[in-house]
Write a structure and sequence with these properties.
It is built from 13 helices and 8 strands. The chain has one domain: Rossmann fold, CATH 3.40.50.300.
């Protein structure tokens, strides 16, 4: 089960003017993966700065939004009961409620600053960012808002598989196409949101992402949806996420208890601009007493 930890701490600062404790020191008080003398992992490769290309101002076609959305094909989705997409498989659970809370905090931030495109990333692989992205998108869509989930990891995509979908043309194919029509976006029946999968992994992922086409695409999509959640690659050691960071309004950094080490977390927070960081999500926590209290409160017949 995931637990939201210090998520969206900047919203409190904006409303109250009170500065929150340093994220590094607070997070590491809650968990420290290098316990009991466990060997430290090899130092991640340095992250190279990528020059920002000059992007032209995108030209967005003015069409009725309902007409645009109706052009996207619909897909039937059957999330497996054993899936960790708890918002869809167990919507009454405490874990699902945590994602509702996170969606509420995002909407609170939206009242104070322009935020629609949210990047979900982590420092290294296997920290749960894909599952966080999907569950958060479901929570936002549950408020009757138009939500798009983008599989932004073109190298090792896994998001479409979580919804039980097979091979679909996606972001990679669109970036390699002629860009005259907005395609490769699918309406997911059941979850009530839209998905743009990664598609077949391209050999030149970073080159495609640095083109002006991706900026134009995000501008088009922003006119169609209330929220865009981007499931991006991990921060270390790839540079792909720095491209996504320039095209989104803020970032959520996912860490996993027992996996993320202090040095990695420090590196990750150095890569993300302080002004872009919305908060940190602590994933993979052991069940707490809150779970039993929650179940007793909402299921009094089980007492």
């Amino acid at each position: 089960m995931s637990r939201i930890f210090d998520a969206l701490q900047r919203s409190g600062v904006e409303r109250s003017g009170v500065e929150y404790p340093d994220l590094i020191s607070v997070v590491t008080e809650v968990f420290e993966a290098n316990r009991d003398g466990a060997p430290k992992p090899p130092e991640p490769a340095p992250v190279e700065d990528v020059a920002e290309p000059e992007l032209p101002t995108p030209e967005v076609a003015q069409k009725p939004l309902s007409q645009e959305l109706s052009e996207f094909p619909s897909l039937s989705v059957a999330v497996k009961p054993e899936s960790r997409l708890v918002f869809f498989t167990d919507p009454d659970s405490l874990a699902a409620e945590k994602f509702r809370f996170l969606s509420v905090r995002l909407r609170q931030i939206q009242q104070n600053r322009s935020i629609k495109k949210v990047l979900v990333t982590s420092t290294i692989p296997e920290e749960g960012k894909t599952l966080i992205s999907a569950n958060l998108a479901g929570a936002l869509a549950g408020r009757k808002q138009k939500v798009l989930l983008i599989e932004g990891d073109l190298r090792r995509p896994s998001l479409a598989k979580e919804f039980g979908l097979g091979r679909l043309s996606g972001l990679g194919e669109w970036l390699r196409g002629d860009h005259r029509k907005l395609t490769n976006v699918y309406r997911l029946e059941g979850p009530g949101l839209w998905l743009m999968p990664a598609g077949d992994p391209p050999a030149n992922a970073l080159e495609l992402m640095q083109s002006a086409s991706l900026s134009q695409l995000m501008a088009q999509l922003s006119n169609l949806f209330d929220w865009i959640i981007v499931d991006s690659p991990p921060l270390l050691p790839l540079a792909d996420t720095t491209v996504w960071a320039r095209l989104t309004d803020g970032a959520l950094l996912v860490a996993r208890e027992g996996t993320t080490r202090r040095a990695m977390l420090e590196r990750g927070l150095q890569v993300v601009k302080k002004s872009d960081l919305l908060g940190v999500i602590l994933n993979g926590c052991a069940p707490s007493r809150d779970n039993s209290y929650y179940q007793s409160y909402y299921n009094p017949g089980n007492k």
